[in-house]
Hints:
This protein is an alpha/beta fold. It is built from four helices and eight strands. It starts with 5 loop residues before the first strand and ends in a 32-residue tail after the last helix. InterPro entries: PRTase-like, PRTase_dom.
Amino acid sequence: MPEDQKHYATYNDVHNLCKESAKELNQWGINLIIAIGGGGYIPARILRSFMKKDDGSNIPIQAIGLSLYERSAEDSVEEVPGTEVKRLQWLDVDSSMANLIGKNVLIVDEVDDTRTTLKYAVEELKKDVKVAKKQLPPGRSLNGKEKTNEETKFHVFVLHNKKKEKKGELPDKMDKDPKRYHAAVTTGDVWICYPWEAEDIEKHDELAKESPIVAIPAAETESITKESSTTTVQEEPSPKVV
């Protein structure tokens, strides 16, 4: 992609966006963070520095890994970034998933582009929590309620939400609820370069001065542009197979 079509976020940008967003997220009663790798790892860790549980303790972070693929043709084995989500890393239903029951869980990623990955993450985690509930032995949780009756509530945080028509739709219309979905910045449909992707961080920071990420004014974020054949799709890069 030509350099003049790219926009750059620095580590300082990411740090400050997380710090500012934590003021809102701290009101949600979050007690568990799930980072979508690899773009959600660093924002999730920065957020934890500014977020605490109600008792003042640190919020634990767990991680899942997803990649987005699409077959280039029906008779081809070649795959390119697209619409099919594949798991690279996931939580264990028999142990880790049980820890989600009754929690306010914050799913963290760097960018909400087509929303395909976020949709998959929320829907699959919800399904697995139901399975984990069925596997629980009879008993009560610390607050006196039957643990199988406790609701797990999922929330989403992204650094950047692109103003575009989404291919995926979040369950329960989460993106319409300001207490369930928070994007630090809403941008146009541009290609965003993050610092953890850079080979030369000094050059990256110089380019960020020339092509910073520009937020769309709040008054303009309500309307969504129709997706065209030339729309930019930015998702987690696929791992190389060796």
